[in-house]
Amino acid sequence: MVESFNNLTSLTIGIETDDNAGFSSPKTVWSSPAYALADLAVGAKLLLPDELPVGTDERYLRLKYTVAGTAPTLGKITAGVTAGNQTNP
């Protein structure tokens, strides 16, 4: 979280795939729990799965953010995908 959110009640993050860049028929392969406003402060780390779920077999991938409550006017998340994460201490 690089900027705290305001206004919303909660935020849910989903991983979606599709066979076309326009996401005309997306398939949700993972959904987060609903994160409350108090969980969305600067520095918070919202963890996504370590591996893409089984069945993630389409070409395009995106994160979809679903807001519950009033649309926020503040709040920024930085997300990324890596080819592998270091696991040794």
Folded structure, characterized:
- This protein is mainly beta.
- It has a domain at 8-69.
- It is 0% helix and 31% strand.
- It has no helices and four strands.
- It has strands at 8-18, 27-31, 35-36, 60-69.
- Strands 1, 2, 3 and 4 form a four-stranded antiparallel sheet that branches.
- The two termini are 24 Å apart.
- The model has no long low-confidence stretch (mean pLDDT 90).
* Main sheet: strands, sense, barrel: 4 strands, antiparallel
Order of helices and strands: EEEE
Flag low-confidence runs: none
Strand content: 25-35%
Number of helices: 0
Global morphology: globular
Q: How much helicity do the residues have?
A: under 10%
**Radius of gyration from the CA trace?**
14 Å
Distance between the termini: 24 Å
Structural class estimated from helices and strands: mainly beta
Compute the average pLDDT: 90
Number of strands: 4
What are the defining features of this structure?
single chain, 89 residues, mainly beta, four-stranded antiparallel sheet, 4 strands, 0% helix
Layout of secondary structure:
Blueprint: E1 8-18, E2 27-31, E3 35-36, E4 60-69
Antiparallel strand pairs: 1-2, 1-3, 1-4
Structure, briefly:
The chain is an all-beta fold and 89 residues long.
